[in-house]
Amino acid sequence: MSSGIPVRCSDSELYAHMLDILGRLVGFDTTSHKSNLELIHYVQELLAGNGIDSELHWNEARTKANLVATAGPGDGGARGVVWSGHTDVVPVDGQSWSADPFTLRLTQDAAIGRGTADMKGFIACCLAILSMTDHARLTTPVTLMLTYEEEIGCVGARHLVEEMRTWQGRVTGCIVGEPTGLDVVVGHKGKQNHRITFTGEPRHAALAPQLPNPIVAAAALAGHAGSRNEEFRTEGPHDDRFDIGHSWINIGRIDGGVKPNIVPESCVVDLEIRNIPAHACDDIAADLHGHATGALRDGMRALSDVAEVTVEQLSDTPSFAIEPDHAFVTFVREAFGATEDPCYVPFGTEAGLICGHAGIPTVVCGPGFITEAHTADEFVALDQLRGCLDRLTSLPLG
Ligand SMILES: [Zn+2]
């Protein structure tokens, strides 16, 4: 009969240790465009203090790294249960914080600071447990996986997909600790950002009838997206597990032109696609790209040889779905004593890459709430952190 994770301290010592670690983690400014190496080295040292080796997987410029560390009986490369978190946080620019965002503040019932909810609170819980675990008594390994640049499109996790694929058969499953209020989440939509740029010739508006107009082409693309959206709404595909049960293209920004008496030289369209798992985001994107570089470009080219349309994909967070009665979902829910049904969330996580691309059974479950993430005075409730420690240590791995 297996029991929870063997930890060499009392619950209250573990909780105090977790808050100390959270203070250190918040103190590293790991805004996505900055290096995460100071934080990674701190984690590496903390784990080494308990005899746990870390592997680092670097980005090309070696300014950032993913960290993978396995505790317990890792014979034959076993990875056991993976705890996954991203180390980066969103910028604080333009937000009005009541104190330094990178200094942890504790109130009676909350921990305040950038990243406390998303998702250094979860990472602090994982680190507190792993640095106190008696791994000789673990019967199943626990692997910590920390990534960089999640907030700008799961960049770090994408670099780990090849590595994670080699874990198949040696891994039980993965818990992604994004803030779900500790509910066990089994699905979310996918998200891609794209930029489409229309270019023509900047000329006197008197010549406008003879020239392509990039703004008009951009507006036509927006119209095309609008009619696709109506099809998604009325014809589907539909997925009633989500509050908004279909895919959607959001035209988020259109920027072009100078003034009324000049034919615009260019116009940029930034858009976001959010897809349900059964509706391939790549297909929606291919249709938009095809319309822009096909009919719309042809129309512009008919008036100017220099007219051009370029398409770029800026980010990709794949959708995530696992069967709610999958053995790993049941394993986690039973250990956590979950009574509510597995649920679905409207935000994206690395679970789509870990589950869909790397083939590792995954759930999303972590302390705090998404409404508290990315905000000024971001916080996580202390009882959520306590609940997270309880749940993680109750996994039957000892
Ligand atoms: Zn996050």
UniProtKB/TrEMBL annotation:
Alphabetized Gene3D superfamilies for the sequence: 3.30.70.360, Zn peptidases (3.40.630.10)
Major enzyme class: hydrolase
Pfam families hit by this protein: M20_dimer, Peptidase_M20
Domain Peptidase M20 dimerisation: 186-294
Matches recorded under InterPro entries: AcOrn-deacetyl (IPR010169), Bact_exopeptidase_dim_dom (IPR036264), Peptidase_M20 (IPR002933), Peptidase_M20_dimer (IPR011650), Peptidase_M20A (IPR050072)
Molecular function in Gene Ontology: acetylornithine deacetylase activity
EC number: 3.5.1.16
Alphabetic keyword roster: Hydrolase, Metal-binding
Claim: Metal-binding is one of the keywords in the record: yes
Database matches in PANTHER family: ACETYLORNITHINE DEACETYLASE, N-ACETYL-L-CITRULLINE DEACETYLASE
Protein name stated in the entry: Acetylornithine deacetylase
Annotated organism of origin: Streptomyces tricolor
Gene that this sequence comes from: argE
